[in-house]
Amino acid sequence: MPNICLTFSTSHPAEKIHQALTRLEGLKAWWTHDVHGQSGEGQILTFTFSNNGSFDMQVIRNDGRQVCWKCIRGPEDWLGTHIEFNIQETPAHNQLMFRHTGWTEENPFFHHCSTKWATFLLSLRDYVETGQGRPFPNDVKIEANGM
Q1: What per-residue confidence (pLDDT) applies to 145?
Q2: What is the pLDDT of residues 54-80, one digit of tens each?
Q3: 3-state helix, strand, coil in the chain (%, to 5)
Q4: Mean pLDDT, to the nearest integer, of 90-112?
Q5: Res. 105: pLDDT tops 80
Q6: Which letter, b or e, does each residue of 52-73 get, where b requires 16 or more Cβ atoms within 10 Å of its Cβ?
Q7: Which residues, 6 or more positions from 68, have their beta carbon under 8 angstroms from its beta carbon?
Q8: How far apart are CA 6 and CA 62, in angstroms?
Q9: The dihedral of CA 6, 48, 102, 107: what is its sign?
Q10: What is the pLDDT averaged over residues 122-143?
Q11: Which long-range contacts link 12-19 to residues 24+ away (Cβ below 8 Å)?
Q12: At what angle do helices 14-22 and 108-130 cross, to 10 degrees?
């Protein structure tokens, strides 16, 4: 199965990364302005992207150094996939290791999402470091149709 794997490092505290992944105001600041739900284990977060639809993520893990979601509603290619954020602390910096696992094939949508995840992870890094991300609808567009 193909997986999307990305990373970035920052000198900012690991707790700040974790808060950006688990607090609604943090999620709204780097992924999409329209986020609802709760981020405790077993709970559901809903991320909406206007006319492009919405995604329901069940929180599988939220332990301070790892945040994992399972897509339970959204595009067919996402259903059952897992999104994992692992925070690794070192003396020099903190590393975020990202994986979106469980894709069935490398189709055009997989490639689109791979690139979009890269832009959103840079948005996350910018939010952690400066307090300003680029969430949808102000995200980096990669397609001719403005997506």
Answers
A1: 78
A2: 999 999 999 989 999 999 999 999 999
A3: 30, 35, 35
A4: 96
A5: yes
A6: eeebbbbbebbeeebbbbbbee
A7: 59, 60, 61, 62, 82, 83, 84, 85
A8: 19
A9: negative
A10: 96
A11: 12/94, 12/128, 12/129, 13/94, 14/65, 14/87, 14/89, 14/94, 15/64, 16/128, 17/85, 17/87, 17/94, 17/96, 17/124, 17/128, 18/64, 18/65, 18/67, 18/87
A12: 120
Residue type at position 47: F
For residue 58, what are its two tokens?
């069940």
Q: Are 95 and 87 in contact (CB under 8 A)?
A: yes
Report, as an integer, the average pLDDT of 113-131.
Answer: 98
Rg, the chain, Cα only:
14
CA–CA dist 50, 54 (Å, integer): 8
Any bridge partners for residue 35, and if so which? 47
State which amino acid sits at residue 33.
H
Closest CA to 4 of 138, 120, 95: 120
Residue 146 has pLDDT above 80, yes or no: no
How confident is the prediction for the chain on average, in pLDDT? 96
